[in-house]
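Researcher: Batch entry, complex prediction.
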Amino acid sequence: MSTETVAAKKSEALFSKRRKKIITDPLDDDNPVTVQVLGICSALAVTSKLEPTLVMSVAVTFVVIFSNLIVSLLRNTIPQRIRIIVQLGIVASLVIIVDQVLRAYLYDVSKVVGVYVGLIITNCIVMGRLEAFAMANKPYDSILDGLGSSFGYAWVILVVAFFRELLGSGTLFDIRVLPEAYVNNGLMSSPVGAFIIIGMIIWVQRWRNGYVEEA
Amino acid sequence: MQQSNGYVIGFAVVMTIVLGGLLATIAGSLNATQKQQIALDTKKQIMLSVMPEMSESPKSEIAAIYDKRIKVINVDGQTIAPEKLEKLSIAKEWKKLKEIQKALKAKEEPKVGEVTLPIYEFLSEDGSKVEAYILPMYGYGLWNDIWGYFALNADKKTVKGVVFSHKGETPGLGARISDGPVQDRYIGKSIFDGGSLTPIHMVKGEGHAGLSNHEVDGLSGATLTANGLNDMVKMYLEEYEPFLKKGASAVSMAQ
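Model: Structure tokens for the complex:
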């Protein structure tokens, strides 16, 4: 009996406090988009409609989690001097897989997001998590970190897409919600609209959390 | 932690082989499905120019109607053989057309082979007469390629419907050329003014009233995409002009 409890203490619980923090931190206090200000380029490019944004979120989640896992598994074998190119190779391969699968099984969606899926390779969040976390942590923790970071990214771009599609096209998921009399706001259709909305999200979040950038 | 050069190079080589092999396997195994999807999607786009009400129907259903009611001919009215049709790419033919036009401008002999301009005949339910002629088109918008299917009624003068698609126009602006309401603006317009060809022109700006029978309302904020669209429509209608000027009866005799 007693030996069992010792063993249990040694191995950490599947969702210990520390691990929960790995997931929840990037959602709010350490959000990749609003606090670290990473991945802004794709947040501007894909968010004019909700559907491609959702597909993009799923694709980024897949790429971040698996690249984190693979890099974490290989972290002790990857040569330090070429680690960036190795990470890039892994990320790029995963992105190509996502793109190919979309083209084969979700052709209509891939026609819309096809151009942007390739952009995941250059999404700083992916590389950022690999460098900052996966290179130094165990696989399971890295998966949780990838989950947290990609969800932190996903909720921000989904909120942006919600407002942009609503105000820019008067629709949600291509279903008309605003009356026909509503004149579409062209500013929201263009990437400038995303800047304004992201700015507002950052403003509201910092006001709520009292976050101040270190000088 | 400093590794030897041999280790670094070895790692890079192994990684390249593993990733390259993985990607090649995946691309190879998905290739057939992807080609099938593209073929289905092309058939759908062609059919939507004459049957816009099918836009929500499953692609397989649309493809079945396509196989039954579409006959592909060339500008001389001869049926294009299926094996030739399979290899025919509108994009490649467009590039050849461009080459020829460039050569003509420079007064040189064009170096490319013959251009095949297909026409998709949309036959009536029993196959006895042609209900519409669908002309495929290809061009360049603002950022990337655009293409479309331009369906004319049996009189070869008035538009039955159009479908435009694009690779990378700005969402919400130029990308609207693939929206139904924008494409509907072409329906019923005429491409002939008396006896001379007058390609339909998309005007600059949106919300115009009193447009002629050869003009359609434009897209605000997407003038450059509309320009590309106009160039494409003009270029192809001119290419097809000899065919369009032949009476409808001449074609049905050639069948």
